[in-house]
Design a protein that fits this description.
Blueprint: E1 7-8, E2 10-14, E3 25-29, H1 30-41, H2 48-67, E4 80-81, H3 98-107, E5 111-114, E6 125-126, E7 137-138, H4 139-147, H5 152-160, E8 164-167, E9 172-173, H6 191-206, H7 222-234, H8 245-259, H9 271-275, H10 289-304, H11 319-331, H12 342-357, H13 383-396, H14 413-425, H15 436-450
Parallel strand pairs: 1-9, 2-4, 6-7
Antiparallel strand pairs: 2-3, 5-8
């Protein structure tokens, strides 16, 4: 999954304060915008390393504004202003310096991230003479550091911290408004639904009245509808459970606020955060897909750690699941409560992922590949999609009810139909998405088939036979 932020081909600049409705909006190529900003804010005679460090901060600042939809989520029709009090200096129509233009052409698709986050930081900066910004970059200070031999990344780390990293060669493409153009409602599925589920789950940490979506897999179910309605009630929107334009951008705005994505000390966004979400406290007596999910992870970890007992993945949190949780907590240094809280959930997922990524390359030679951590849905093109299609194609040769998908590596409508047919046949929720439970079921059946354990003589064939049945 390519989670690099896209560099927009163009950016819409408001030539005035945000609330100045009479000010003009201009659309300019993103690289030209950066050349203008850099030529307006720094000097072409500065050491090259200082110029590069400043330009990287300016690129990241603009990219943060675009990616968080900072202004669009407030109802404005632009991405950034040209006022330094709000954003960056931009003098529409000015010429830019030749050496600055050359540097921008080389690095305009690079940006700054923090640690394991893939989201661009909000890099506060000021000139360092007439204005200062504690915790931010001093533009004139970069000159002194460059003269002392600091590289661009060392300059950035001096101001923003040692965990600063640089993402290079990010894809450049048209970045439209994120709203999908049509309301999302019960029955819809895909990445846009998953995005809303992830954001609502994070918002619910600050607004506990919003129920957790136990399994944010991109399928808009009644649990998601309940979370949307609760959000709408809290923020004075019509509580219809439908994510229209107003709800979409309000969710986006509140999410940015609670994550502080437009602040220097933002939480950021990691790959794992996209691929898994804390489902809320689970304990003895609970039932549902959230319980089934932790049971799956526990059973997998138990395969590699004999101290942890196996537990059925039946979605019922009973004594055996509680015992497995306690054993896991003991083995991995988590407070032993028998309850899956956020600390236990994160540790469980971390241990699961470390085992999966540490499996030898020839593991699949005698075993099916375990769930890799990414929920697969229509539009996915991860490497494991090809594996899924291989498994389904083999199963379809035995089970006539399942259409045989082509092995393309792309999760299209054909693969989705095969997944839905499989889920219907084997009693799984027919969502058409493949999370750990569906993956485990498909992989296990595939293993049985290739090892000759399915459909042996005398077995029920899995479908109703009549006088007209052949074979």
């Amino acid at each position: 999954m390519d989670l690099r932020v896209r560099i927009p081909e163009t950016i819409v600049v408001h030539l005035g304060a945000p609330e100045d409705a009479s000010a003009q909006n201009v659309t300019v190529p993103f690289a030209d915008y950066i050349k203008n900003v850099a030529s307006s804010e720094i000097y072409p005679t500065w050491p090259e390393n200082a110029i590069i460090a400043n330009i990287l901060a300016q690129i990241t600042f603009a990219l943060n504004r675009v990616t968080t939809e900072h202004y669009r989520s407030q109802g404005y029709n632009f991405d950034i202003t040209n006022i330094e009090a709000y954003d960056q200096a931009f003098n529409y129509g000015r010429d830019y310096f030749e050496n600055i233009g050359q540097i921008v052409d080389e690095i305009f698709n690079s940006y700054i991230v923090r640690g394991d986050n893939f989201f661009p930081i909000f890099p506060r900066y000021c000139n360092g003479t007439t204005s200062t910004c504690p915790g931010g970059l001093s533009q004139w200070g970069t000159v002194d550091l460059a003269n002392r031999g600091y590289s661009p990344i060392e300059i950035l780390r001096y101001y923003y911290g040692d965990d600063i990293k640089l993402v290079e060669n990010a894809p450049v493409e048209d970045v439209p408004d994120t709203y999908p153009g049509a309301p999302l409602k019960v029955g819809d599925q895909g990445f846009n639904v998953k995005r809303m589920q992830i954001q609502l789950n994070r918002i619910s940490r600050n607004y506990p009245a919003i129920p957790k979506i136990a399994y944010p897999d991109g399928y808009f179910d009644v649990i998601t509808e309940d979370a949307v309605k609760a959000f709408q009630r809290i923020f004075n929107l019509t509580p219809d459970g439908i994510i229209g334009n107003a709800t979409w951008y309000r969710v986006n705005k509140i999410y940015n606020a609670v994550k502080r994505l437009s602040e220097l000390d933002a939480e950021g966004l990691t790959v794992d955060e996209v691929n898994r979400q804390y489902a809320g406290v689970l304990q003895n007596g609970d039932q549902g897909p959230g319980v089934q999910l932790i049971q799956y992870y526990l059973s997998f970890v138990a395969t590699f750690n004999d101290y942890i007992p196996q537990t059925a993945t039946d979605g019922i949190f009973g004594p055996s699941t509680e015992n497995a949780v306690r054993a896991f907590q003991t083995a991995y240094g988590v407070p032993v409560t028998g309850v899956v809280d956020e600390e236990t959930w994160n540790r469980l997922y971390s241990v699961y992922r470390s085992i999966v990524t540490g499996l030898p390359e020839d593991y699949a030679g005698s075993n099916v590949i375990p769930f890799q951590g990414n929920v697969l849905t229509r539009g996915s093109s991860d490497p494991e999609v090809r594996t899924l299609q291989t498994y389904l194609a083999a199963i379809a040769d035995v089970y006539n009810e399942i259409p045989k998908p082509a092995i393309t590596g792309y999760f299209g409508s054909e693969t989705e139909q095969a997944v839905v047919a499989y889920q219907n046949l084997f009693g799984l929720p027919p969502r058409g998405t493949v999370g750990p439970i569906t993956w485990d079921s498909i992989a296990s059946l595939y293993s049985d088939i290739i090892n000759g354990n399915q459909r042996s003589a005398g077995q029920y064939p899995g479908y109703v036979m009549s006088e007209n049945s052949g074979g």
